[in-house]
Structure formats: C-alpha cells, structure tokens
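Can you give me the bound-state structure? Components:
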Amino acid sequence: MKQKVNINGKCRELEINAGQTLLEALRANNYTEVKCGCNEGECGACLVLLDGKPVNSCQVLVMSVRRKKITTIKGIGSLYSPNVLQKAFVEAGADQCGFCSPGMIIASYALLKKNPTPSEEEIAEAIDGNLCRCTGYVKIIEAVRNTADKLKTNNKPE
Amino acid sequence: MYKHVNKSVSKIDGLALVSGNERYTDDFSFDNMLHVSVLHSGYAYAKIDFLDDSLACKMDGVVDVLSYKNVEQALYTTAGQGFPEPSPYDTCLFGNVMRFVGDNVCAVAADSKEIADAALKKIKVRFKELKPLLDFTESDKSKIKVHKNDGSFAKIPVFFDPDRNIAAKVEAEVGNFEEAYNNSEFKLEHEFYTHYASHCALEPHGAVSYLDTRGRLVIISTTQVPFHVRRITSHLTGIPISKIRVIKPRIGGGFGGKQEVLLEPIVALFTWRTKRPAKLVYSRKEVFKSTRTRHEYKTTFRVGYKSDGEIKAFHLDALENAGAYGSHALTVLSNAGAKTMPLLNKIENQKFTGKGVYTNLPVGGAYRGYGATEACFGYGQMIDIVCNNLNLDIIEYYKKWCIKAGETSPIFAALGEGKEGVPMTIGSTSLVECLDKGAELSDWYNKYKLYNSSSSYNSGKRFKRGIGMAALMQGSSIPEIDMASAYIKMNDDGSFNLNMGATDLGTGSDTILAQIAAEVIDTPVTNFIVTSSDTDYTPFDTGAYASSTTYLSGQAVKKCAEDIKKQLLSVGAQMLATDINAVEVYDSSVRVIKDINNNVSFQDICRNSMYTVNQFQIQANASAISHKSPPPFAAHFAEIEIDTFTGIIRVLNYTAAVDCGTAINPKLAEGQVEGAIVNAISYSLNENYYFSEHGRLLNDTYGKYGIYTACDIPNINVELVESFEETGPFGAKSISEINMNGALPAIANAFFCATGKRIFKSPFTPESVLNILTKA
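Here's the bound-state model for the whole set.
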C-alpha cells in the first residue's frame, strides 16, 4: 500500500507494508541514509526527527507517522550543502566509519535546537542513546561543542 | 618539513559519510533479489539426525535452501588470513554437527526477508543432543571431544590434536627458564583470567551478491579482507577465482570481527544456484552469538627476580578458549607472547607456552589487540607487583629495563605466526619519553604518593582513589608474510587515480595513504581519486589486520608514488629542455631547481605525455612486503575511583602517551587511540558474555551487553610522542591495536594502589569488586 508522508520537506508517497517499522519503510524506499545497527532501539543509528523530535525509527510503526514531518540526515544537510554540524564532525575527526554519524548528528542537531549552549554533560546526555565504537565519543563531543561555539559567535540559529 | 603527511587533513570521505551519501553493504539492493535467513543451532553440541525442508520449500516465495544435505562438506577456516592459513581447517559452511549455540544449521533464500524468516520455522530438524564442553580449563582432560574424527586438519605443519581438543599449541624458550627460576632470590606466580567480548562494530555483518552482465559473481561485503574472501569463497563453492569479484564498500567498523569469511559463501552459493541476487545481513543478536569474539584466556605467570628488581626468569603460560572452531587460535595465542615479552628484553631466561583448546562455546577470532590485550592484563600487573614488593618506582623500572633503539629481543626470532619468528632490531622507540610524558600529564608522582594504600588519603573512605599504569608494545604488520600493493595513474588535469587493495574500515586509511602519495609527488590530497578494495580493480593486499595498513600499504603507496615522481620529472625535464637531475617536483609542478620560475604544471605534463610527443600513460604499480614488524609503544595511566559500598569502579582520568613513529594524520591517529581506550575501559569494567548452563549466550543485545556510551567516558588525554621508523613510510608505525591493551592492567594496578588488593579476573564488575574488597 501507499502512504503519503513529508520527508525532508518534500511530500512523498511511500510504498509500505502494514507491519513495517518506519526504519524498514524508509530503507525500502531508498532512504538508506537511515542506518540499522540493532533494530531494537538501543544504538541510535536509525535516529530520525519526527516533527522535530529525535526518534529511533526502528521503534515506530510506519502507519503511525501519517501527517508527521520526517527528517533524515539528508534533510539536515547534504554533501553539496552540509550543515554546520556535519562540517564540524568532519573537521574534528568525529567521522571514523561513519555508520553512527547520521543518527549521532540528528541527536546533536535536536540538542542544539533546544539548547544552543549545552555543557559537555548535556552533549553527552543528548547522544547517550547513540552508540559509537570507533571514536570513543571524544571527537564527537568536541564537534558538537565546536558547533555550539560557532553558532554563538555567529549569533544565528541553525 | 612535511607538506602533506603529519598533517591533520580531514577524511576524504568525511562529508559523504556525515551526509548519509556513502553506501554500506546493506545499502545495495538489486531487482529480483533474494533475501537470506540462517537457522542457527540452539544447542551447544548436537548432531542433526534428521532435517526436512520440504514444508519450507513448498512455501510461496521460498526459492532455495542450503544445508548439509546439498552443500559440499568441505572443511575450511573462517579466518581471513593469508594462504596457507595458520588456522586449522575445522569448519563446514553447513555441517551436520552443531558445535556451539549459533552454529549454522541451514539457510533459506526467499523473495522477502519475512518469507525467509517464516520458512525457517517450517524446517523440521531433529537434533541428537550431546553433552557440551563448556569449561575451557577442563578441555584437554575432558572426555568430550569437540572435533572427534571429523577430518579437521592443520593446513600448515603445526601441532594440532583435536583428539585432545587442542586447536593450537605454541612453545618457545630462550635461555633456561626452570633453572633460572629455581635459583631466583624471589619468586612470584599468579593466574589471571580474561573474558569474552564482542567487537560491536555498529554495522552488522552482511553480504550481497549478484551476477554481472557476463555471468561473473560479484560480492559486496562488510569485509576487512576482500582478497581472502575471494580465495576462500572460491575454495568453498568451487566457483573459479576468475569468476568472482569482491567489493568492499564503506564499512561500519571492523576491529577484527570482519576478518572472517562467514556470510559471503552463503550468498555466493544462492546466487550461483539461482542466478538471482542474494542478500544476507545479520541481526545484532546473530552478530553477538554467531560471528566471532575475543578469546577467553587464562594466563599463568612465573617470575623470578633479584632484590634490585632484575628479572632473571619469566614464564608466560597461556590457555586460550578457542571456542567451537580454531579461527585465529594459533596466531592470537603466539601473539600473546610475541607482543608482550620483548618489552623487557633484558630478561635472559624467558619461556612461552600456550595452548588453544576447543569448547562448545562461541568462536574466538581476531579482535583489536590480538592476544596482547589478554596477556597484558597479567604482564602489566606482574611488573607492578615486582615493583611494589621491592618498593621500586615503576616508571623508572620500565625506563631501565625496556627495550631500546638498536636492541633486540630473542623472542622476536623465537615466536612467529605459526612458525618461527623473524629476528628484529628496534629501529625506533620513544617509550622512555612516553613514560615521562604520561607521568607528567597524569600527575603520576603526586597522585601515586597521595592515593597509595599506605598513605592515609583513602583510609576509612567510601570512595577510594587510585592510579595505575602499564607500558605496552604491539607490532606493525606480520613480517615475511604480509604484502600490499598499489597502482597510480595520472589524468589529463594533473589528478591521479590511487587504486589499492588496502581496506579502509572507517579508520581513514584511504585518506592517510593518499597523504603519503601526496607527500612524495607534492600535490594536494584532493588531487587523488582513491579506489580501494575491489578485487577486479585494485591490486592485492592481505587486508586490514595486524596493524599493517599504515606501515605496509603505506610503503607500497610510497614506492608507487616515487615511480610516478620519476616519470613526472622525466617528462617535465624534457619539456623544460633540461636534465632530469636539474628538476624537482613542487606544488603540482615540475620546476628547475636553480630557476624555480621555470616550471611546467602537472596538467601540462600529463597532456604532453598523452597527446603531444612520445605518448605514454604516466602510471606505476608497486608492491611492498614486510621484513619486520616495528612495535609502536605506549604508556597508559588510569586514575580511578572505587565506590566501596557498591563495588563500582569509575575511571576519572585516562592518559595515553603513544609512540606510533610519525603520525601521518595526527587527528585520525588520536581518534584511533581514543576509540581503543574507550573500548578497552568498557571491556575491562562492563562487557562480558554470560552463558546459560547449556552454553547459550544470555546477553545478546546492545542493551544487555552494555558497551560504553558518551555518558560513561572518563576524561581522556592522548599525547602522540613521535619517533621515526626508518623502514616505515615517512617514519610511520602502527597505532590502531596497541591502545586496546592498557586499560586492564592500568585499572587493576590503580585498584591495588587504592585498596592494596589485586584483581586477577576480568571484567571488574561491581559484584567481583565487592567480593575482592570483602575478602580478608
């Protein structure tokens, strides 16, 4: 069956099955930037924004997201026009294998929207649901902090 | 100085990664693709009496089933190692004996994953349950034989005795240990236990295969070893190597877990039989129980020493739980000695004895640290015990007795990978500087004095603090075994294709290898179009393991780039009407050394060589083999706080001073250190495999297994203390593995500092800590 959704600011019709999770539906419809690390809501690799709130898409049925706005990492910024956070991740070396990066950046993006001047602890808490085995989180936290600093000096919202 | 190496350039795939543009194995799908599900054994040890897949085969959408009934019972090792592999051939892709919970029973290919999963439930299997062997310390005496009369054999001439459950055995001695030990003034003997672990790369294992337009098999895989995958898949399926192409796309982390050939032969067989594309991606649970793990170890150390601290006799006896199959059993075992014992090279009498034994538990494999992690737990504590017993300053102790530049250790020659080792003189080390730097950054001397259990700081307190340290070494590549190669060609605009077998798992090797080429030719990294790990289009490389990529693949790239440089100089000199010795490369051009404004750009050189006169393609290839395995060195310092009420250990500060030779990319090198440290602390304090009494893994999810999150990490301080390794590219050695080895001994030593008690078994969970604290 088909379901109309708003993904990354555009109205799209997804081909879905009734029992599918949002993660399965997104990946089946070529939104492969949303990654599957555990399918149990424990790693955060599949994080998307639902109406601006970060959600593990493997824990949501696709039928339940009608009329909601879905944002994947590609809605935050693209290769050609990256978001300041994405650039900061690359500059800080927070991008090792990159598998956790889409979810990690979405969690950080949601944090900075809510709290543009987070402490290190607040950054860590915001990405507590996102696992990374490569970086030890040090450079990820640094990237988020650098972004917050940059946004503060530029004094403009995301 | 350098213009392109020793610089923290950003990863060339960075923006593509963080924008979700890069593609991983599971991101590739094809029309008419089959979806594969694997049925895994629920028994630790059982024989299949009867398997009936007829109901499953009748289901709509089920296309094919593989089991022992229709798959050739060829033996192989899943270890993705060079040929002939040092791991025993003891594994069937689908056999009729199940040797651990998670072993392969059969696989179904269907039109959808849902149908494949449903079909698994329709397969009737009758198992004859056998009593499993679950305690590896009893393995060689046990009546239960894990591989009795099943034809398992060693591919290379090494000791292999499945009748006694022995998957691997290693012995080496220099001097005469027993005599020296017996004559020692002081003797020390302790047993240590280290535990199972999962690599937990965020991307699960997966493979996708299809036939190309000419009927060749293409496999896209989450692999660290594409060339070994091609060879081993051919061996298992009978498909000629010439008809197989293996592509490694982006990989979501490996850490050794993807140095295994597990899924590729399954999708290959389905595609070959049905002519349809096939995809198999493991669930997280399957990764935990069915892929590979860190081996469980028991190490026994005997140390004989003098009152001045000189160790006269040293014996490390290692007992390794290989699990159900001997993947990497021999080589991890030998590295337990080879990557630790040369550190204090002045010990005249040293002995290493080791056995890897079979059990009916999950299979060990390669895991960052590769035996050194397991041995360092005891090694680092034994040295701490010697120093404490004699009231010696451990920093000064390591500085005095550690291996220095120009020195060797007889262990290098005595302990190799499945054969004798390769003698080696240390060319570079800054370990002494690392020890000083680490002591300074961690405020070692003040804190050690303050926290020491003989001081009053901790007495009567609920929260006790301690500081501990460990000195470490590893290697860089497997000497006289590993090989890497690279190919470079030039394009009209002065850009270059750099094609190489080296496998970037997320480590950034595509970037740092391009930096090495850039340094030789003096052109920006952005001028390189990097293609790696495609068996059709890139030359051979043994793969991403043994801390070899920067050191060895780097040498191949450097040699290749030097050839390109010669060609650039030659064409450039002709165009500038001068002698080749009168010109140099500079910033993407060739210029006359004594008249630097007289120059010709790389673009013009390439155009000239392609279109104008004496046309030829500027191109080169080069191979590098490794003649030595220069160790990186490190000093790690852990400052901890123990809650004596709950038993919870918290690492407050962790300092690592690391000698990786020249850091080709300091930012990425730091990232390797930080990642390894957090993995190692998480392993030391939290991660473990818990089994039921029947050998079933109980904590097979991220949530139950519990790897560290951003909230768990201590303050981490990394300092690269560079040295210059003459044999490495621009002085580089390895960095990826060594930093996995420090947390176990450093935290255990810190625990002793705080409490006066030793931890002999990992992980240091609250329960085990409370047990130790409450024991008299």
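A couple of observations. Chain A has a mean pLDDT of 96. Strands of chain A lie at 2-7, 10-15, 47-50, 53-56, 69-71.
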